[in-house]
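Data availability excerpt. The first of two example chains:
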Amino acid sequence: MQLERVVAKDIRSAFDEVKERFGEDVLVVSNQKLGRSVELIVAVDIAVNSAANEPAPQKPAVMGGLVGQVAFEDALKKVADRVGTHPWNVTAGGDNPNADDAFDAQRLRELTTLIKGEFAALRQEFHLAKRLSDQYGKPHETSVLMDELYASGFPLALGHLLEHEIGAASDLGQGLDQLQTLLTQSLAVSQPVQLRGVHWVLGTAGSGKSSMAARLVHSAVDEFGEDAVVLVSFCDRKGGAWSQTQLSAAGAGVAAYRAQTAENLQALLEALSGMDCIVIDTGTQFDPEDLAQMCERAKQDTVHCVVAADVSEYAARHQMAACPLAVDTVCVSRMDGGTLPWPLTAALIDSQLPVSGYSDGVPVRSGMTQCTASQWVAHLVAQFAQSLEAKLMQASARQRGENSVLVDTLAC
């Protein structure tokens, strides 16, 4: 596939040009306003353009130098072949030399599924935007607030549901209050995490799961003290995972334990039953027997699913639905880069899973910021209002500068 840029006077004209040039089987990568015009970036199959453009000569792959291009699934197959027919057959004890390969192969499979799902979700978004454009018969008029929300990554479907009530607001302040009220009412009711007891922390590779487990440990230490809290690593066979667990525990001043089977974990939990808080940092690979015992054990515990703030709506839905245990709360990581997790919020509304905490860039030793649904939405709306205020101030300053130049020109 390759990216193509289309600029038109409005969104309907842009869609019409995309359809005329590339057909309907395209993916909208991004859309934004350029002055009074609209820019669409779309991904199209190279074959679509082959009739209009001469194909560029392909350079042969150079062994030992530049690596030739290979299909993603071909690369996946090579890794799977390399680790064997059963790459998950990793021994329970010690660091197995095949563990990294098994983890990489699983991660590649997850990414393949995720990429295919993302493309399908982009197609749906494109068709939804087209249907809305066809329904109104002209570029849909929206308020300044809705325009800025869409520009900040607000999902089109969720925006369309809220647009009527938010767009009717008389000013930006009232519109922001209405946005906060509607989102709070749509999310599942939640409460801050009760730290006493056993806490399972699950999430996909790279979601910030281990960091969130460390934050939970620090929050528990502040409440119960170092001697009443432990951190357990369970079935995390990724290279270096156990070392990271030990460092996290040392940073909080608590003991660290390791269990590679559900049976060993059960014995460990019985031995640690006198502790006020036990945080279990889980891996991503579980044997069927272990998983069955985990599900039975976790019914009496608290299960946290960690999702990164910068994931797409599809990825958030997929990660929460794929969690191997019944989720009690969602903890949001990586809230420290000015990210506005509107897509994640839409997924939370759809799943009705309660959000109970997040990490917002403060050091891990500061713990997890616990929240209710209303506090979570208030935090997001405040972030958005701050960025919107800065943007409006910049626009106002630029307008004053242009007026000043015009006055000087006329004076001359």
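And the second chain:
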Amino acid sequence: MSYIFQRAHLLNPLEQLDLAGSLKVSNDGFIEAVVYGNETIEASPDDRIIDLRGQIVAPGLFDMHCHFREPGQEYKETLESGARAAAAGGFTGVALMPNTKPVIDSPLGVAYIRHHSATLPVDLEVIGAMTVESKGEHLAPYGKFSSYGVTAVSDDGSAIQNSQIMRLAFEYASNFDLLVIQHCEERSLTMGAVMNEGLFSTKLGLKGIPDISEAITLSRDLLLMHYLEEHKLHDPLIRPRYHVAHISTKASLDLVRKAKREGLQVTCEVTPHHFTLCDEDLFLAEQKSNYIMKPPLSSRENREALLEAIADGTIDAIATDHAPHAPHEKECPPDQASFGIIGLETSLGLTITELIDKGIISMNRAIELLSANPRKIMKLKPILFSVGEKANFSIIDPNIQWSVDASALKSKSANTPFLNRSLKGKATGIFHKGKYIDAESL
């Protein structure tokens, strides 16, 4: 039996493909035929035909910043429930941050994730810890990570504060061409704080996080990269690669723009909640704890700067920072709430509603940010719609109107500020690992 996806809108930025067509996929998951235009593919009696009626077939979406909590905090999320949420959101792959319990700071943790995710419908890439237990004191074994297929390291949730350790991380990672992903935060400025420092934190009586805390750490890291480049203290053919997680301020964006102009290998991502919300939304919200995250929702001015950076290409990827929490960790006063929200099931809808429908970017650009670019940054195999290639794609209906319903979420957690929000656009299925999964069946 083969699968035939008829009357699709084939969209693949890597192939400059944006036109009507159909795909035939073998039962072992390889593309057998591609036709363009209104021509359909002839089916045999045992083939399964899926008439997409103009829905978009795009390279499988990839989220390069997720937390699935396993091992150690399975009451929030498991690999299985996280993968189900990813598939429901249209993702065929995600990268998992290492701040589990225990921290993924050795090949043993990588092997655990790989073993327990083998039969899941989406790929789970593992990001190794930058330092042992993510304490910022001793580097983790990057060479062993690399031998296990790990392509990136991070102490997400806890920026390295010691500049010498950060320098060594750059040098060590560059030897194995590992991407360094930094959660930029100068912790001396943020201890005990819960939201953006400004008018609204003052009105609420909550301790504020000054937005310069992000740019201070980012500036330090870029200065280190410049130093290593100029002094060639490592192999001149091997250069550090640096990625800014969940960028949120104009000052940080300006630093990234300058670094890119100067030729540093720097990329950055933005979350849907940061390009959609600001600290005023937290102030106005009745249930404030679902608006508590790091970096915090920033000012309206910083949000506008993010939208401009998405439009002009400064921002390279959209990533959710999917961070599930149990009800007791969010149904509490905001200064006692855990940081973070879920995002896999709302990411695509928010991108279409807030970016595409408002004319900020095109659908083609959105697929770059949600699929092609994250895979490129992580040095994963690109997805092509060509005969003989492994089929890996997301099916998207950009016109579906829907509302975020807690009871319909596939994640174990429902900590999101977007509950009951009306969105446009949703994934209706994925094809990956030789299987077609209809979103309604999850």
